[in-house]
Amino acid sequence: MTRPVPAIVILGNGSLATARTIAKLYPGALIHGLAERVEGADRVYHEFGATLRELYQQDTPIIALCAAGIVIRTLAPLLLEKGAEPPVLAVAEDGSAVVPLLGGLGGVNVLAREIAAGLNVAPAITTSGELRFGTCLLNPPSGYALGDLELGKRFVSDLLAGETVRIEGAAPWLAQAQLPEDAQARLAVHVSPVERVPTANELLIYPRSVLVAVSGGITDLPNAVREALHQSRIAVQSVACLLAADTDMASPALREAALELGVPLRFTNAGAGVGELVSNAISQPVSVLGDDSIAIVVAEQPLDPLQIGRPRGRLAVIGLGPGAAELMVPAVKSELARANDVLGYETYVRMAGPFRDDQVLHCTDNREEMQRARHAFELAAQGRSVVVVSSGDPGVFAMAAAVLEALHESSDPAWHRVDLEILPGVSASLATAAQAGAPLGHDFCVISLSDNLKPWSIIEKRLDLAAQADLALAFYNPISRSRPWQLGQALDIVSRHREPQTPVVLGRDIGRPGQTLRVITLGQLTPDQVDMRTMVLIGSSTTCTFPRADGGEWVYTPRWYGTKPGC
Ligand code: SAH
């Protein structure tokens, strides 16, 4: 069963060598380096605190190469909140100390031992139970679930006070531990999928060896599952996953039930009944309990959900924002982290990286939109997690509409069952406007000047009407080598309705290296000042400018409408 890949966070070049040694221990782990301080990191961040807190909230294990105190202060505001508690470690820059700080139940000591072994030092383990017994009894390995944490803490403190313990059931990971075992002991570690009333002298550990296959259309599914398990005397904590027919893949009731029960959801080919679902998904010998609508499968070993059937495929169409990492929304970052496949125009895919070795990149030409959209559905229908990348916002002259068109045209039920989500981004017009002030502060019109996918006559008509309606204008795709004359004509049309002194903002490569922002007037604007990486914003009759203290100019369009002297 896979563990989440840790993030290695460093503040300076001095930590790079240690960070690289640690990164080798965790394939796919990325080194996050502070901008302008670290050269050669996999990911650049600008603010240490925000970055660390974001990783923490995403439940990403954190290995911070800096003073433990800095990490503690940074995460302190989050510690009282319930929610994620991933392992967090502070490692000395030079690799001489490895200090597990948080996430005892998330396996922080395991990480500390691994990293310390990789760096040839002793980990600073401070957990009494772990020191004494060589393992954290309250943190069984993946594939097993602890029954009750509070009872467990008491159990461990009884052991530390000198009591002995019996082990009932199969606990292979405890073979190496130094537990004070005694067949007559009052305390027992009990490992079994059978439902059992918790008591203070038993540490209940449930192997996740149970699969529950369900048919569609059951009312109140979570309770039906709980009831069926109870009837068979199987503990809910032992459930490794829910299994359903792929025809039920898009069922919201199933998704909610899995969420409520806290188990993954897997799918297999539909069959005559739930018994057939089980035989479609599992080859190892199992005993099947339950009835016609819910089958309960108890395996001898913990089950790895990843090996059972397939997940519901996911397709996310994401917007990267204009380019700068800080302008990318957190949901997009998480989506990129979970992706198996990334599709898009090569420049944007590169902008979305770096990626792990296990992530497959499918770079294509910018014009092959529909083909790319269909390819994305083919991959997602196989159960993969697929991301289609656009710059800015995916719904603004970008991939979201192409993806929806491909789905609309398709009669393949597997495509329609894909978990499709569109995640927004900061569009170039908004990123440019923000840098200039608020030129789009009142009603505005967004228009692409490209006549590749629409007739020029319609563009002319829209320009004329929008200019006449006194909307501020944002031109996307203003010009290109194959479309050299269109911008000039567009400006002629706009100039029929706007004064030559109307403010114009030209933003080029906004949010990217070498960005430029210019504020000029409509009268000064000529097509040779613009290229395909430029955003053109043209003000309305109320758009004004005034000097900034730094020598530049602010541009804004007031919220009110009318004429005001001085603008
Ligand atoms: N989906 C994108 C737009 C794609 S159309 C978005 O929402 O931003 C491509 C056009 O967007 C380019 O021709 C240019 O006019 C504009 N553009 C995209 N990124 C830009 C950037 N970083 N700076 C300025 N203009 C940009």
Automatic annotation (TrEMBL):
Q: Which Pfam families match?
A: CbiG_N, TP_methylase
Biochemical pathway: Cofactor biosynthesis; adenosylcobalamin biosynthesis
At the top level, the lineage of the source is Bacteria
Return the SUPFAM superfamilies for the record.
CbiG N-terminal domain-like (SSF159672), Tetrapyrrole methylase (SSF53790)
The record places domain Cobalamin synthesis G N-terminal at: 51-129
Domain named Tetrapyrrole methylase is located at 315-525
- Which InterPro entries has this protein been placed in? 4pyrrol_Mease, 4pyrrol_Methylase_sf, 4pyrrole_Mease_sub1, 4pyrrole_Mease_sub2, CbiG_N, Cbl_synth_CobJ/CibH_dom, GbiG_N_sf, Precorrin_MeTrfase
Q: Kindly indicate whether the keyword Methyltransferase belongs to this entry.
A: yes
Please provide the record's keywords in A-Z order. Answer: Cobalamin biosynthesis, Methyltransferase, S-adenosyl-L-methionine, Transferase
Q: Which residues form a coiled coil?
A: none
| Protein name (record) | Precorrin-3B C(17)-methyltransferase
Q: Which organism is it from?
A: Pseudomonas izuensis
